[in-house]
Description:
Residues 188-192 and 747-752 have low confidence and may be disordered. Helix 7 packs antiparallel against helix 8 (247-258) and helix 7 (222-240) packs parallel to helix 12. By secondary structure, this protein is α+β, with helices and mostly antiparallel strands. It has 20 helices and 33 strands.
Amino acid sequence: MSPDHSFDEASTARAALDGDGTLTEWNEGARALLGWTAAEVLGRPAAELVADGGLAPVAGLGGDRLGGTLTLRHRDGRTLPVWLLAHPRADGWLVVSPRHTGPLAPGDPLNHVDLIQSPCAMAIHDDQLRLRRANQAMTDVLGLPEERLRGLRPTEMSDLPHTHELEQHMLQVLASGHGTHVRTYVPVGADRKIDAWLARMAPITDAGGRVLGVSVAAHDFTEQYLARERLQLVNEASVRIGTTLDVTRTAQELTDVCVPALADFVSVDLLDPADGGDPPARLTPPVTLRRSAHRSVHAGTPEALVKPGDTDSYPAESPQAKSLLTGRTIIATLPDRDLDEWLSRDRPRRDRALEYGVRAGMSVPIRARGTTLGVAVFARYRRPDSFTADDALLAEEITARAAVCIDNARRYSRERETALALQRSLLPRTLAHTAAVAAASRYLPAARAGVGGDWFDVIPLSGMRVALVVGDVVGHGVQASATMGRLRTAVRTLADIDLAPEELLTHLDDLVVRLSEETGGGDGSPEVGATCLYAVYDPVSRRCTMARAGHPPPMLVAPGGEPKEIELPAGPPLGLGGLPFEAAELSLAEGTLLAFFTNGLIESHTRDEDTARRMLLQTLARDGGPGDGSLEQTCDRVLHTLLPKDDTACDDVALLLARTRGLPASQVATWDVPADPALVAPIRKQVLDQLGDWGLSEASFTTELVVSELVTNAIRYGAPPIRLRLIHDETTLICEVSDTSHTAPHLRRAKTWDEGGRGLLLVAQLTQRWGSRHTTEGKTIWAELTLLEDE
């Protein structure tokens, strides 16, 4: 509930009119200004009190306000020039005029507050919430000079909902004596576009601590708001586009994502090579394109002249041909001379554009891997605004993602080209550098079978942890490689949301089952089979959790110890469906060597697997030392020892070696946080002290804000006990806040930035990345900050 507060109603002359112009409200301030009592004027036309003058539209703050000087009739017969501000309400109009319009007196206690010359919009209101001072930036926001608004409360300046919200928060500041900040989204203009503002409020006090008024600073974060909306659309596109290897479906997914978020109509037209091969390297107008998909805000897409599957020819002056020939995005706003020239020759297209009131168009070339595939056309007619440079960048980003998917689908029918493309993406070019492990790897395709389905990965996780994965798809050739690519992508995606190893394998098993159903022969046997081993290592606790799905168990060499094979529950191969996976947890000393591999390393026509495993253990025992270089040497020595010398290996070989590192306790700090918002400040102080001890004071400002937001959110929405942990290495500082509530932000990849409340938006803006992971006790919200390297 808002605090109880009474206003001096005589400080503002205020009257209300219904839709017919009849006076329905007349306050004491209006009586003091013109002498008429409420009984004398209520129910009469307001025009009877106006002698001369008129009102004009007023910009700023949104809404359809009017302002101006009118000559009004006083009760004693005089006429008075009075400046009025009128804004619409649901039942008519509210008309106000400030009566305290003079500057502050020298002895006024508010006079000691100085409004600096700043691009930040700033204003001062007294204890009646009347505007007393405003700098130039604030008057630009309000749309009127200070002398016209001085003496008015926010709700007397505008009757929009956000002003009522702001006034309630200002009342709370007056009552509590504590500052606050409010985000507000203001619809402005005929198209009701959103302007986003952050209003920070603080009490103004005298030397004795008595609250004299409220200072307000307004910050425009519209660009950040729009950037978040654009990022959300890009994330949604990354999930929704490319779900199949079908050109038409992928093109339709592109149009579905962009309508109505970016345009009112979107079409995808692709080049149509006559021989079914690659599109021509050079294009000459007119360009013939085949409609693959389109989407409109109107059901049935009635504005489209070309049906999906049909072709159309575009001359050189058309935006489609221009974007294809130049490789650039073409933006046009009607009327446009070049477009008029084209449309004058194409009467049906011109008539259709006039019928639907097309105002703006944008043509984006669809290009992938250096090849021009077609063009995506975006049009607006329901939305009155033109396409901006930011809109073009967004369309290009989404189209580029779709272009890759379209190109993959186009290449899928051509086995040789598809196999080469997949081979380039089999394995990471370099292993990720992490603070948790030093790693080295080798991959050798089978000499006779060609490209296969073995893969490995090193995936950085939150909290300095790392995921180590190795997998093997049954079979060889294009199908095995395609399956491997999808599984590897799925593993990275599932790892990114911090699933436990056994849960990750369960989801991966579901994916393989679906892949089998897509390619199944109907006899009940899985058409797609695979094995996988997934491990997560934490350098802070030095514990490693592993689970496997029918994959060979890894080897372990502890510092100064004998190599051994890890006893790990086998788990069923992927693709059987419905069977459980089990995980095992090990405590690893720093410097422990882990060896992950696929079957191709230990399978041979010349020896049995038990012999090969003993040979592998003996080779690992001869590892030269703890450095990264020794891992590379060990990889070469393993392959040289176990693989045949004549290059007749019958299966792919993937080998991943990882030597664990431990994070010193001195680089980790943990606090138990009381579930009391009043105690957040002491926690921030302890965090700043710890950063100083670590020599990371340059990160204090950002870290303090991030810690404050995460801890406050945990106190407000989580459940005790609450724990804060800071971890750092040479390049990264991680803030983690854990609690026992299982309610967490819905980190759906398409809408990551919408979740977690407004505080999480600030965290997202300030940090390199952030996220959430579930734990056995509850959840952990984490954020990573990149530390500045010393010059």
